[in-house]
Amino acid sequence: MDQLKEDFKKIVEIAQQDKAEVELLLSNQENLILKYSQKKLTKFESTLSLMAGLRVILGSKQGYAYTENLSAEALFRTYKEALNNAKSLTSVPGESALPLARPQSKIPRLDLYTPVEIPLEKKMEIARSLEQACLSADSRVDSVPYSGFSEVVSTTRVINSAGLDQKYQQNYYSGYCYPLVKSTDSSKMSGDSFFLRSFKDIDVEKLAQESVHKAISRLGAKKIPTGNYAVVIDREQFPMIMAMFADYLSAKKVEEGKSLFHDRLNKKVSSELLSVTDDPLDPCSPAARPFDDEGSPSQKTPLIERGILTHFLTNLEYAKKMQIPHTANASRSPSSTMDIAPSNLVISQGEKTLQELLTIHEQVIYLTHFSGGLHSGYKESTGDFSMPAEGFLYEKGLCLHPIDQTVMSGNILDLLLNIEELGCEYGKPNQSMMSPDVLIKSVGFAGI
To answer: Three-state SS for 439?
Structure first.
């Protein structure tokens, strides 16, 4: 017997008496985290988390509460808490009742759950060998401050009082290594990571070689004069730029007046070379899902087509409120309120190889690393950014030297308009944003 379903049916009966609708979001996740340092196991963490979040809708008002106890009594208490939270809100005259997702037969089938029994020792060997493979790759590797392996198995389920009940499971493996390399006059650290659905696809030696190469290539870095440069932003770094404008695509941000795209629908927002799609149906992506956090079936949504903004991302509430297409981008955890977010943003590829991009201008910066993260140098309200960055200076297609201690600055709207060419290859699918290499005509850099 499905005890959770039976208990939820009883809550629905109570909700009907309260003239309320109710939705339950269940998240069940198993995590294994292994870390080695100096050839010793420094972290072994195996956790199981189980959480249910209830959303209660009273007309145009909604209240939330969550519990980690799935007993009937705990779920009932959580429902009452969410109901009281909804009652405490003030109704806005003229606002219509919030919708719930309805049962649908066209839920995409995604190959996200392929469990295989892997002995723990094999997983520990992956974690052990990440550090050792880096240390053995080159004599200049001094240490590996950060390396690790993790495995995740999770279940997501949405049940509501409109009769919807659906779930999906997924499992994946991830790992990373960041070696510290030293020469006589400098030291640098860099690295790489993987995200894979299949354990047999893990290639420790390849990851270590790539990580060590990235670190060594940055040794001997020099400063550059302050000025404007053409810049090729690496395919694994451009997702940082995508993160800058991702929130502008949310209908909720538009309605709240927090999106710089608020008045740009069906207008030009970027170079005509740029096309951006939200694609939750790619099983290689960490953000793949057959339905969103309301239970609506996932779909591909073109957002920018050849520079023209064509859609905003919506959940059921904002699609109805703004009278625009529903894109199934409801986003929340059991412990948070409803929001809107992209799943897997993908920029369409161009036709140029990386080397071709690097030869288009007499002098170009190949940007391969942002330091400090997005929030250290980006102002969402204006689109202005000032991001510490590292990379390489190229002249006539040849690498002169690595560069560091520089800051790339500008405005995200100007940068999108100044996209000049796109590369023909994607990076590894270890992020929820995919991009080729991107050539920007001119960006300001502060150096010497």
So the answer is: strand
- Tell me which residue has tokens 């970027």: 270
User: How does pLDDT run across 247-280, given as a tens digit for each residue?
Assistant: 999 999 999 999 999 999 999 999 999 999 999 9
The alpha carbon dihedral of 384, 388, 389, 393 has a sign of positive
Nearest to residue 314, comparing CAs of 101, 29, 40, 136? 101
**Strands of the 433-434 sheet, one edge to the other:** 308-309, 301-305, 276-278, 345-347, 433-434
CA pair distance 122, 125, nearest whole angstrom? 5
* Position 206 in a domain: no
CA distance linking residue 434 with residue 422, whole number of Å: 13
Residue 308 has pLDDT above 70, yes or no: yes
Range of 446's domain?
A: 221-448
In this prediction the pTM is 0.94
HSE-up of residue 160 (Cα within 13 Å, Cβ side):
21
Residue 386 counted as domain residue: yes
Q: What is the DSSP letter of 96?
A: P
Helical (H) or strand (E) element with 166: strand 165-182
| Two tokens, residue 4 | 């959770």
Asked if 151 and 32 count as a contact pair (C-beta separation under 8 A), the reply is yes
Q: Note whether 54 and 41 are within 8 A (CB).
A: no
CB neighbours of residue 116 within 10 Å: 8
> Does some domain include residue 94?
no
Give the angle 336-96-12 at the CA atoms, nearest 5°. 55
Distance CA 442, CA 401 (A): 20
Q: Which helix (H) or strand (E) holds 187?
A: strand 187-189
Render pLDDT for 193-250 as a digit per residue (tens, 0 to 9).
999 999 999 999 999 999 999 999 999 999 999 999 999 999 999 999 999 999 999 9
pLDDT value at position 301? 98
Q: Are 179 and 218 in contact (CB under 8 A)?
A: no
Q: In this structure, is residue 228 part of a structural domain?
A: yes
Query: Considering its fold, how many domains does the chain have in total?
Result: 1
- pLDDT > 70: what percent of the chain? 100
pLDDT tens digits for range 151-183: 999 999 999 999 999 999 999 999 999 999 999
